[in-house]
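User: Reviewer 2 asked us to show a designed sequence for the structure in our supplementary figure. I'm pasting the structure tokens here. Could you produce the per-position amino acids so we can include them in the response letter?
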């Protein structure tokens, strides 16, 4: 197991770690591995907000987490972050949809809940680290700074590329990474399930959770209709001609080609893609394919806001700058990015203009949605990212 911990730092006791036990196999095995390696482990179940009228799964998940803690014979805590989750994840998601952006609640959940409130709670209550079952790696790398060695922590992709979750963790800072362990980041999912059986954990055969962080698999259109209220609107061609109807502009993402109705009388029989949406007028504009792609959706560069570089020392020499200013200069070095989860990495360049960070793709991209995360990589190292304007 790879970790950045130094067990000799406090010889009179074992390093103490609070493990976020979700009730699933990944977090349960994480706790077991840490216990095996000599850590003082406490299991923590995070109780989040559940939408009214939706299935309440947290009680079942908590029971599963308790069973894992009992088998491992470790202390167990329930941390109620219901109000924080509603305010900082759900309300954020609703606010973004209201203004026509496509939010990434999983990123915000990690930032504000798991590595925000949970990490603060753990450190306040005597923990040295928190740990989760994310498929990503935190790797220590000593750096020489001003005549002294300082441990820097690189966030890297998980070994299992089908499960890698580094995309959702780009907001992590050096100060946070020094207190975070990812015990299964070097393993394949199949290995994790085998280890669950070896440790006698009932989660060995439990199905993976699906959908949004803590909320699970919900119908987003139904959810937004209930909490925002939407109404049907017109589908327009670029000429302004109405050719159909949709269920509410907030429901659609740039590049989407399903979920709206085209009038049977319309002469346009080609597949149509959303190229623009007007939230105030409640309209979406669509266009057909051109040369195999809807050319109106091709984007060469984007501007980022709310940026974070978790390890600027990993950037090529031509891009290094003081940590305080996070200044970046245009470079032709080997950088890449993702604009959505599990997407193949895109080669890109990065530059700073004033307070703005600009990303230029080597090849124009389609389906770039304001509000989504753009995450930067150098090889397998996740450098950080930002929100697309």
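Assistant: Here is a per-position design you can include in the supplement:
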């Amino acid at each position: 197991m790879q970790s950045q911990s130094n067990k000799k730092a406090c010889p009179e006791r074992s390093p103490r770690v609070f493990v976020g036990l979700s009730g699933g196999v990944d977090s349960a095995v994480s706790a077991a591995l840490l216990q095996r390696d000599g850590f003082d482990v406490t299991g923590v179940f995070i109780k989040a907000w559940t939408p009214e009228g939706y299935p309440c799964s947290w009680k079942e998940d908590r029971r599963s987490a308790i069973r894992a803690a009992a088998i491992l014979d470790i202390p167990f805590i329930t941390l109620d972050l219901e109000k924080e989750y509603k305010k900082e994840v759900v309300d954020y998601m609703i606010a973004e949809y209201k203004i026509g952006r496509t939010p990434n609640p999983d990123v915000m959940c990690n930032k504000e809940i798991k590595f925000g409130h949970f990490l603060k709670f753990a450190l306040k209550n005597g923990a040295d680290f928190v740990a989760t079952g994310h498929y990503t790696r935190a790797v220590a790398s000593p750096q020489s700074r001003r005549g002294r060695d300082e441990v820097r922590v690189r966030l890297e992709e998980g070994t299992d590329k089908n499960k890698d979750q580094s995309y959702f963790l780009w907001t992590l800072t050096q100060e946070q990474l020094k207190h975070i362990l990812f015990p299964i980041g070097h393993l394949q999912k199949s290995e994790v399930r085998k280890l669950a059986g070896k440790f006698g954990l009932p989660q060995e055969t439990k199905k993976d959770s699906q959908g949004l962080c803590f909320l699970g698999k919900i119908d987003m259109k139904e959810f937004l209709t209930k909490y925002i209220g939407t109404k049907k609107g017109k589908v327009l061609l670029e000429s302004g001609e109405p050719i159909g109807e949709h269920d509410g502009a907030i429901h659609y993402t740039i590049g989407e080609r399903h979920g709206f109705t085209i009038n049977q009388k319309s002469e346009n029989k080609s597949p149509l893609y959303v190229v623009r949406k007007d939230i105030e007028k409640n309209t979406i504009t669509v266009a057909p394919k051109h040369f195999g792609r809807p050319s109106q959706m091709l984007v060469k560069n984007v501007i980022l806001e709310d940026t974070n570089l978790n390890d600027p020392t990993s950037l090529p020499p031509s891009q290094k700058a003081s940590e305080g200013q996070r200044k970046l200069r245009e470079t032709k070095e080997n950088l890449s990015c993702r604009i959505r989860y599990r997407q193949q990495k895109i080669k890109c360049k990065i530059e700073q203009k004033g307070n703005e960070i600009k990303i230029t793709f080597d090849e124009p991209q389609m389906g770039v949605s304001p509000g989504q995360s753009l995450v930067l990589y150098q090889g397998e190292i996740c450098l950080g990212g930002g929100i697309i304007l």
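For the response letter, you might also mention the following. The chain has three domains: 7-205, 230-288, 298-388. The two ends are 38 Å apart (CA to CA).
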